[in-house]
Amino acid sequence: MKVLQNKWVLLVLNIAASLLVFLFVTPVLQLEQLINILFYFGSCWLFVGIFVWIVHSGFFDGVVYGFRKSFERSFKRKDYFAETDTLPSEKVSISFVKAVSFQGISLLLLMLILLAWFYAA
To answer: What are the average pLDDT values for consecutive 10-residue runs of the chain, which has 121 residues?
Structure first.
């Protein structure tokens, strides 16, 4: 998690990983292939960011609470899940949501810039 604290270092690492995949995986080095790889990396980061944001918003808290109550009844134990257990929204911080979303948005923005350059040329 230490890497996520500096968003610019992680962005440089993401771009470097994209370039390494571009250099070693694609048979023909074309700008279109780099745009595709940046799209894959950026969309994965953005998907994770949106999912973490949904968890942080408390959407799944009711489901978790319901399952806890259901397990308490089925096992007939009151202390199986204590009321002090944290909910999923309490485990995810907003700084993590922002860091992950920043990576996805930045990579997709870079992809759009390269895409505009590709079609302008």
So the answer is: 76 96 92 96 96 93 83 67 73 90 96 95 77
